[in-house]
Specification:
This protein has two domains: 101 residues, Nucleotidyltransferase, domain 5 (2-Layer Sandwich); 202 residues, Hexokinase, domain 1 (3-Layer(aba) Sandwich). The protein is globular. Helix 1 runs parallel beside helix 2, helix 3 crosses helix 14 and helix 9 packs parallel to helix 12. With 328 residues, the protein is α/β, with parallel strands linked by helices. It is built from 14 helices and 14 strands. Helix content is 39%, strand content 22%.
């Protein structure tokens, strides 16, 4: 049997799969808060003690670059080594890949019901495929056809320089440069990014902050869910600051998705993963996303041909590492 893991800055999900049940149905899975553990080995040992099942090998998707069979988690003080995990698990093989590469492996195996289409486009069979995923951070990856099958490739494109496209975004960049030496797309287009956008708008006087939200933010360990919730609140008047932050986030996400599509000429489609797009589907269907996506001058006519989908399967990374580990 196969042990798999989706290792993120916020949570770690572990699961066991078998060849008989396949990659779409885990035998058992658990979710752990990453920040409460010193390292991945401790979580793995906790999980294996709880489930008490034999495994033969393991594959982990991790939120960070993987080099020489070792990974440093971008938003955690962890170093993950294949050799150390193999020693702890006492198995024949351990593989560690980037988490967005894991999602990329899942793309060919997703069912139509696991996708929400934002732009139908005109898919080119065997064309390059792009994946962009805002969650705790911003991940990017891609797939290319090698003549027989798609191959998944990792990327750290989320850490490239943020490029503003209008006056508001230029003001945002100037504001962010006072806080950070380098302003990447991740700093403005992720869970961390939503928080940064909100406080940029608040601190530059865009709108007053409601006292009830100010109190909640002061007490919260993670501001992002509160800001998103305040923007999506249908029971009372949505917070103007939160709405503006989410609108700005969607516009920047659309712009960077379009950038990635052009860099790869992603005629096979562009897929939005991560936890945030699933939650804000009505906002992604609004004009802000596609308007920014297509705002590429004379190349807008190229981009309109590329399909754009939101991945609804919240376990896409686990599906991807299961497909890889099971040899699919």
């Amino acid at each position: 049997m196969l042990l798999t893991g989706d290792i993120g800055g916020t949570k770690t999900q572990l699961a066991i799969f078998s060849p008989e049940k396949g990659p779409h149905e885990a035998i058992i899975d658990r979710v752990y808060p990453s920040g409460q553990f010193a390292n991945l080995e401790t979580i793995v040992q906790t999980f294996m003690a709880e489930v008490n099942l034999p495994i033969e090998r393991a594959v982990f998707g991790v939120a960070g670059p993987v080099t020489n069979r070792q990974a440093t988690i971008t938003n955690l003080p962890w170093v993950i080594r294949e050799s150390r995990l193999q020693e702890v698990l006492q198995v024949e093989a351990v593989t560690v890949i980037n988490d967005l590469q894991a999602i990329a492996y899942a793309i060919p195996f997703l069912e139509p019901a696991e996708l929400h289409t934002l732009n139908d486009g005109d898919v080119e069979p065997q064309g390059p495929i792009a994946i962009i995923a805002p969650g705790t951070g911003l991940g990017e990856a891609y797939l290319t056809w090698d003549g027989n099958r798609y191959r998944a490739h990792a990327s750290e494109g989320g850490h490239t320089d943020f490029g503003p496209t209008n006056e508001l975004e230029m003001s945002l960049l100037r504001y962010m440069l006072r806080l950070y030496d380098h302003v990447s797309y991740e700093k403005v287009c992720s869970g961390l990014g939503i928080r940064n956008l909100y406080f940029f708008l608040k601190n530059t006087g865009y709108a007053p902050e409601p006292p009830w939200l100010a109190k909640q933010l002061l007490e919260a360990s993670d501001a992002t869910p509160l800001i998103v919730g305040a923007a999506l609140n249908h029971e009372q008047q949505p917070c103007e600051l939160a709405v503006a932050a989410l609108q700005l986030f969607v516009s920047i996400l659309g712009s960077e998705a379009g950038n990635l599509g052009l860099k790869l000429m992603a005629s096979g489609g562009i897929y939005l993963g991560g936890g945030i797009p699933r939650r804000i589907l009505p906002w992604l269907e609004h004009k802000y996303f596609m308007r920014s996506f297509l705002n590429k001058g004379r190349f807008s006519t190229e981009l309109i041909r590329f399909p754009v989908h939101v991945i609804l399967n919240k376990n896409a990374a686990l599906l991807g590492v299961a497909c890889l580990g099971l040899g699919l």
